[in-house]
Write a structure and sequence with these properties.
Blueprint: H1 3-9, E1 23-25, H2 35-38, E2 44-46, E3 56-59, E4 62-63, E5 66-67, H3 74-80, E6 85-91, E7 99-106, E8 109-116, E9 122-127, E10 132-133, E11 154-156, E12 164-169, E13 172-180, H4 192-198, E14 200-206
Parallel strand pairs: 3-10
Antiparallel strand pairs: 1-2, 3-4, 4-5, 6-7, 7-8, 8-9, 9-14, 11-12, 12-13, 13-14
Length: about 220
């Protein structure tokens, strides 16, 4: 067993419910009483596919190896991104207190910023750099005009996304597309003509279903 496999194997005990996985039910040993007859549950091993490199997929179910069952936990995320620099940090925006986040960086490129909710679970994963791909294989810096959105699928950004436009596809309600429009400072969604002329995709933000914001709002 290599060192990399050893490092991955140890935390998998903690990650039994996390990440894209497949179940492998262990068969009873010859002569053993089947678990169904004893009332005991057969042990289950769960395989997790860590992110090794290449395009980071942002979909309705999650970002790369992160999905809604993954904990906001530094050790867990280090296992899921074994080649990356995964660190705890704080984000300060507005008048409130600084909020804890976890950042993921690989090959000197930021991959993701992960935020926490009040229940100490993942609240969001923000991807605004690198080779990220959206639900329809969209890439950062793409033009609004080329992504097939309509104005009624968008809303004005608030807080950290003020002066930006947030759009959501009906088939991927957990993913927000954050568009910037250079020079625009209005509080409403820019006119369609302005979005078509200047709108540019600056970030993807994935939230678990209970935290997603759908539609124009």
């Amino acid at each position: 067993m290599t060192l990399r496999h050893t490092l991955l194997a140890l935390p998998l005990v903690l990650l039994a419910a996390c990440g894209p996985a497949k179940k492998d039910e262990t068969q009873p040993a010859p002569g053993a009483t089947p678990a169904a007859e004893t009332g005991a549950k057969a042990p289950v091993r769960v395989a997790i596919a860590p992110y090794a490199g290449g395009p980071l997929k942002v979909g309705n179910d999650g970002v790369g190896p992160i999905n809604s069952s993954v904990a906001f936990d530094l050790a867990t995320l280090k296992v899921l991104f074994p080649k990356a620099k995964v660190e705890q940090a704080f984000m300060h925006f507005g008048e409130g207190p600084a909020q804890p986040i976890i950042t993921v960086e690989q090959d000197n490129t930021p991959l993701a910023e992960i935020g926490k909710n009040d229940e100490a679970e993942i609240a969001y994963v923000r991807v605004d750099a690198g080779d990220a791909r959206g639900p329809k294989d969209e890439q950062l810096l793409a033009k609004w005009a080329g992504l097939g959105f309509t104005v009624d699928q968008c809303r004005a950004g608030e807080g950290r996304e003020i002066n930006q436009t947030i759009c959501v596809r009906p088939e991927a309600p957990n993913v927000s597309y954050v568009f910037g429009v250079p020079g625009y400072t209005g509080k409403a969604v820019p006119p369609e003509a302005t979005l078509k002329a200047k709108g540019q995709l600056n970030a993807f933000i994935w939230r678990p279903a209970e935290g997603a914001v759908v539609g124009a709002g």
